[in-house]
Amino acid sequence: MTRDPDATTVKLAERTGANATRCEVASTTRLCTSMIEIALRGNALALAGVPGNDVMIRLSDANGRLVSRRYSVRDVDAEKDELTLWVTVDHEGPGSTWVQSAKPGDEIDVIGPRGKIPLDPVADWHLFMGDISALAAAYRMASSIDVPGRAIFIIEIDAPDDAIGTTFDEGLGVTGIFVERRGRDLKDAAGLLSGLAAFELPPDLGHVYLFGEFHVVRTLVAAVTDRGVAAEQISHKPYWRSGLSNAEHGEPDKS
Ligand SMILES: Cc1cc2nc3c(=O)[nH]c(=O)nc-3n(C[C@H](O)[C@H](O)[C@H](O)COP(=O)(O)OP(=O)(O)OC[C@H]3O[C@@H](n4cnc5c(N)ncnc54)[C@H](O)[C@@H]3O)c2cc1C
């Protein structure tokens, strides 16, 4: 039987109109070199929201301070009352440390649903771009596209086995490429830009979703705008920032 979440977590959830739950770690699975899947049990449907939403995890940093880290919900299993997250571990921070040491039965305070970028319900095609931290959101959002819609993925990876695939409903048009970083700087969008250059964007109405490193996302917004995508057809969110820890509230510093 899990206990109630910490009082500061409850207060934070109230301020954002979200739920606060003390979840139990159900399992962890190494997916690839750069990412671990963690399944959290408890109030899963309410925390998970809709495709595109994330949850805020309340963690202690190296100095014992309580900090928040946000992770997109990859999947939710109502029967098991579990949601899964795909957490990157190719760097050192409270989030990566937590997931690498998490064991079944551990308890963790979770706030959700969070996030303001749902799937565009009227777009004919959906282009998802970013690094591997964008993959959970991209795959969950693409799973909710009505057939016969189209999903396009351009994802930058650090190791060849980071190219994790998935399956979608029959009838969904799926195209995509994984671009290897090959030692380029984390702020350098060149790999994703070359992936974008390889695609002829379909002529009908599309929506572009850009998630990942702060500087890269900024460059990608300019690049898709140059390709003729209107501002209202672009949703973007920096998830992390090269060289800087995310702030206590879980977002990268935007200054
Ligand atoms: C709405 C939202 C959704 C998000 N969804 C996901 C998700 O699904 N999966 C996910 O992994 N992250 C996701 N993030 C990012 C996540 O919240 C953390 O910022 C990230 O995991 C790093 O946290 P940390 O505590 O491990 O490291 P931090 O303390 O934030 O950073 C420590 C150091 O690691 C570097 N670093 C951080 N992330 C990376 C990275 N991916 N690659 C290389 N270096 C890095 C930083 O530049 C810093 O130098 C999301 C963020 C937001 C705002």
Descriptive account of the structure:
With about 260 residues, this protein is of the alpha/beta class. The protein has two domains: about 5-115, Beta Barrel (Elongation Factor Tu (Ef-tu), domain 3); about 125-240, 3-Layer(aba) Sandwich (Rossmann fold), CATH 3.40.50. It contains six helices and eleven strands. It has helices at about 5-15, 45-50, 95-100, 135-145, 190-195, 215-225, and strands spanning about 20-30, 35-40, 55-60, 65-75, 80-90, 105-115, 125-130, 150-155, 175-180, 205-215, 235-240. A six-stranded antiparallel beta barrel has the order 1-2-5-4-3-6. A hairpin with a 5-residue loop joins strand 3 (about 55-60) and strand 4. The longest helix has 13 residues, at about 215-225. It is globular and about 55 Å long. The structure holds flavin-adenine dinucleotide. Flavin-adenine dinucleotide (FAD) binds next to strand 4, strand 5, helix 3, helix 4 and strand 11.
The protein's oligomeric status is: single chain
Strand order of the largest sheet: 1-2-5-4-3-6
Distance between the termini: 43 Å
Q: Provide the residue-averaged pLDDT.
A: 96
Architecture (CATH level 2) name of the largest domain: 3-Layer(aba) Sandwich
Describe the structure concisely for a colleague:
By secondary structure, the protein is α/β, with parallel strands linked by helices. It contains 6 helices and 11 strands. Helix content is 21%, strand content 36%.
